[in-house]
Amino acid sequence: MDLMQKLEILADAAKYDVACTSSGVQRSAQRGQLGSARAAGCCHSFTPDGRCISLLKVLMTNVCIYDCAYCANRRSNERERCTFTPRELADLTMEFYRRNYIEGLFLSSGVLRTPDYTTELMIRTLEILRFQYRFNGYIHAKTVPGTAPELIDRLASLADRLSVNLELPSQESLALLAPQKSRQDILSPMKRIAECSQASKEERALARRRTTVYAGHTNTACLKRRGYAPAGQSTQLIVGATPESDLHILNLTAALYRNVSLKRVFFSAYLPVNRDKRLPDTDAVQLDREHRLYQADWLLRFYRFDVTELIDDAHPFLETDIDPKANWALNHLDLFPVEVNTAPYETLLRVPGIGVRGAKLIVGARRTAMLRADDLRKLGIAYKRARYFLTCNGVWGGAGCTFSRESLHAKLASPIDGGAHGRRADRPIPGQLSLFGNDDEASASQTVGYTTGRSPRLGANGEAPASQAELGGKPAGQLRASPPLPSLPRSA
Amino acid sequence: MHASESNPRTRSTGQFRLDGASAEPPATGSVTGNPLALDNVAYLHDGTLEGLFSAVFEAYVRHEQPTDIAPERRFRPRLGQSELRIATNTDHAKRVRRGIIAKGGNATFRAVVRAAVSDDPSCGIVVFRFIRQLMSPSVTKRDAARLRSRLADPIVADLHRLEHLTLSEEENMRQFVRFVHWDNGIWFARCNPAQSVVPLVMGYFVDRFNDQPFIIYDENHRLAGVWDTTRTRFVRDVDVVEQDAAPDDALYQEAWKRFYDATSIDARYHPELRDHFIPVRLWRNLTEFKPRRTEFDYDGALHRASDGLPQSDRGKSADAALHDSENRPDLRYSEKRAYDALCSAEDRTDDALRYSEKRADDARLYSECSTPVPSHTGMKLSSAAGPSCQK
């Protein structure tokens, strides 16, 4: 098998790994070494599904001794199997990097023979890259559950970011779908990486300050070595394969950020790749749910939200027709509207339509000028959404709309733009009549029709047609003019 | 204070200095001190950053408020407008730079440079107005450092907008420049940025690829940044004669295309999102959007690749190759000049016709690459989605 075929097979096998970030570490280049790393990362291309390609994301091997129900590479699947040699993969990485195709390497793997053997292959690859080719770019390595701690340490000293896949949101689900993996196998390396990474960071900070003298020696030698996973660690879990609620998932996410100081938690909408009795028997991909979870995740990490503010036991799933931040604002209308010229930064962050960048720009711009609506538009915030929650010099921006939950909900509700192609293009709209007499649906309590993804959608609680008119100029959902005719709804 | 000797039109009248230690504040509002000052005048410069700064300096010297400052090649006069050609004077430009840095700091100067190299036709006058605002005595030194955050001020907002055009184009270049390995050892990248950002991103690439000699050629501004592993040079108004690619280059280009195709997930197909992230105008220089080879001599290419030099020797051979290429110049330099990163406020040379042709080219490429085709699952896919989506 030639290199090209191997690359195709192993890239195809790795594509279900979500993480493709090259962020978290700033490292300037050194003379004679190839590569550098930027804290913000860099996306070098985007696939036709809109996901970024930042790293050469491949598996070391797609041979696997495990038999996880959801995985395309599980042992019981009949697939073409192959393995990169460390040298092949290192060469490929260097050649791609030199052409500015990639920011570095994302190395994951199926389990070949034992977890330790697999990890040693990965370590060998990284050693060739780091020491022989003097590669200074970004490397993300995935740890295989069940690997010896010493090998993980070695991997962490070569890579920039490590990740341990959580796979599924709960222990029960893991026992059901991935019986050969245990929660302990996943959590203990995670904890170890968190502790060692923190220790290494502190040690380096002390050495850099050069004020602390340990008994007998100053410990500046650690600055010469590579740090322990300097870009931290991340994880990934599958959403929709098992019945956990958003409440459960978000609480888990917040706990992971708090306890093992993860940089990111990635959510992956479950894609049916195998036929298995344990898996949900549906063709639907919960892309919208994944989108809302990411929005909530951003609120946790950048907007100083607490998970209890976003979701509670009474509503264990995030609203699909309105984003979590707008939903929070609608539930706390007593705090709004806020005066844009005086409100503190933390309050501005909570206004729908104002992001971190917008809030900072507002704080800077209002030092010397009284901001008016026109100024806010020029700052690049989403004034269309923010205006209902702001006053500019005492004037409320939402004239023409009543300041009530219902009317604001109608203004802010927007379907997730899934594009004009693919699975998200056709979606059912509750409350809309179908042109194509659909007997199955007619018998259901609500009729279902199809519209393009861009059309406005009614609120979740099925408002009267009056509020439909409120949605704006666009007619609510025009039927697609061209075939193919829609089949049964995928997500109902 | 002395008048520019190279330009007989200029006259020395003022006593103030731009370098921060102003003995006398510059005039604001109406023109004072120069009875011959022109009312509706456009300053024309040579299109470089030095030229623009010389024009700014001249406006202070002449106590004039020009209505336009533009590169000479691109200028169309307004009704009743008089023109004044400003000769570039490096000393004057340096004094303007010193003044901006002394009052506003380095970050402000970088913002001014970014706004000045943008291709926006208004960039000259926007930069001039901002500098006037910055140097005005009503702005204290403490305020000057954060003058750029006053976005409610239209003068600052304009500068901010132009700065962002350049910043985003810089990021586009860092993302989407693609190198080809030539047979003579040089790595060559052709790009078409909307602003002349090659000098601004050259440092980033030099840092990262310091052991490989490379050329980044901006075909829109006909500007080449050259790194020969020891120093950076910029060459203007240049055409490039492309060399033969190294024997293994086709292999790795093909490998990249296949990786690109293989890593997409059919069930999440969403080309609109991709097009949002990669501007269509940049597609024509991206390897992954070039046509796939139906037949590829893998074994031959692999064989040739494995015959090639090992990684560790590659830098050396490339050095030697560069040396050869200097003796036998492959670039037709119409002028050989070293520029530092600041002197490349290059203006576009392509006229409207060429621009529309390019747009048509882009549109054709786009429609070729994203024409929906049915796949076996009944989903509509684009032909650029590649074989992984269509098998």
Set out the fold topology.
The complex is a heterodimer of chains A (492) and B (391).
Chain A: H1 3-14, E1 45-46, E2 52-53, E3 56-59, H2 86-98, E4 104-108, H3 115-132, E5 138-142, H4 149-158, E6 161-163, H5 171-177, H6 183-209, E7 233-239, H7 246-259, E8 264-269, H8 287-302, H9 307-310, H10 324-331, E9 338-339, H11 345-349, H12 356-365, H13 373-379, H14 383-386, E10 390-392, E11 395-396, H15 405-412, E12 426-430, H16 439-443, E13 448-452, H17 465-470
Parallel strand pairs in A: 3-4, 4-5, 5-6, 6-7, 7-8, 9-10
Antiparallel strand pairs in A: 1-2, 10-11, 12-13
Chain B: E1 41-45, H1 49-61, E2 68-71, E3 82-85, H2 90-116, H3 123-135, H4 141-145, H5 154-176, E4 179-181, E5 187-191, H6 198-208, E6 214-218, E7 223-227, E8 232-236, E9 238-240, H7 249-262, H8 271-277, H9 298-307, H10 311-327, E10 331-333, H11 352-370, E11 372-374, E12 380-382, H12 387-390
Parallel strand pairs in B: 1-2, 1-3, 5-6
Antiparallel strand pairs in B: 4-5, 6-7, 7-8, 9-10, 11-12
Write up what this structure looks like.
The complex is a heterodimer of chains A (492) and B (391). In chain A, helix 2 (86-98) crosses helix 3. Chain A folds into 3 domains: 3-233, TIM Barrel (Alpha-Beta Barrel), CATH 3.20.20; 324-407, no CATH class; 424-492, no CATH class. The longest helix of chain A has 27 residues, at 183-209. In chain A, a hairpin with a 2-residue loop joins strand 10 (390-392) and strand 11 (395-396). By secondary structure, chain A is an alpha/beta fold. Chain A has helices spanning 3-14, 86-98, 115-132, 149-158, 171-177, 183-209, 246-259, 287-302, 307-310, 324-331, 345-349, 356-365, 373-379, 383-386, 405-412, 439-443, 465-470, and strands at residues 45-46, 52-53, 56-59, 104-108, 138-142, 161-163, 233-239, 264-269, 338-339, 390-392, 395-396, 426-430, 448-452. Chain A has 17 helices and 13 strands. In chain A, 47% of the residues are buried. Residues 437-492 of chain A have low confidence and may be disordered. Chain B has a 5-stranded mixed beta sheet, with helices on one face. In chain B, strands 2-1-3 form a 3-stranded parallel beta sheet. In chain B, strands 9-10 form a two-stranded antiparallel sheet. Chain B has 2 domains: 41-168, no CATH class; 174-351, no CATH class. The N and C termini of chain B lie far apart (75 Å). Chain B has helices spanning 49-61, 90-116, 123-135, 141-145, 154-176, 198-208, 249-262, 271-277, 298-307, 311-327, 352-370, 387-390; strands at residues 41-45, 68-71, 82-85, 179-181, 187-191, 214-218, 223-227, 232-236, 238-240, 331-333, 372-374, 380-382. Mean pLDDT of chain B is 76; it is low at 1-31, 302-353 and 371-391. Helices cover 42% and strands 12% of the residues of chain B. By secondary structure, chain B is an alpha/beta fold. The radius of gyration of chain B is 25 Å and the shape is elongated.
